Amino acid sequence: MANTSSLISETGAMASEQYLYDFTKTDGVDMWVEQSDTVRDVGMSKAVLVIHENKGFRRAIFFALLNPQPNGAGFAGIRAIRRYDLTGHTMLQIQCRGQGQFNGFKIVMRHKNLNDEPNYSFEQIFQAPKDEFAVRNLPFSDFKAYYRGKRVNNETLDLSQVSSIGIQMYGGVYQVVKQKGPATLEIDWIKAV
């Protein structure tokens, strides 16, 4: 975990990348735990992260079953609580592929060990690519503070004190698009660049 290497950018300057999780190698999923809407009395969704491998490949698969409320409130997710210092990085990258009717996911981050309610989270929605694996770029400047799906303030994510990272399939309570049912997100790696 947390493999760091240096790259030469097009301008010749040194830039670093920090693998938070490289599931194509030896990183496991033991530290990832479910964080779905079942934390509330009306929640009925389920999520799990597993390793899928054979002789030719290895990756993680996020399986989600989303059973939202009629207004779209609901989420199926997993998270890893661990300290990450992402100082000096500008974005999170995830190499992934989605399958299922809906492919809207979000990355959920928290900082300063404020990992549970009533604290808010920093979130960014992305559409998973279908058919082929591709990298999704998620600039840290686009992570915004939310509480239960609603934007709450203008505080920024403290990259030096990230204390959890999660992946969710969202119902879309305050979104135009509502999602429900099963979905998968195959993940090769997650890194900061």
Automatic annotation (TrEMBL):
Domain NADH:ubiquinone oxidoreductase intermediate-associated protein: 21-187
Pfam family, one: CIA30
Coiled coil ranges: none
Superkingdom classification of source: Eukaryota
InterPro entries in alphabetical order: Galactose-bd-like_sf, NADH-UbQ_OxRdtase-assoc_prot30, NDUFAF1
Recorded family membership: Belongs to the CIA30 family.
Name of this chain's protein: NADH:ubiquinone oxidoreductase intermediate-associated protein 30 domain-containing protein
Organism: Loxostege sticticalis (Beet webworm moth)
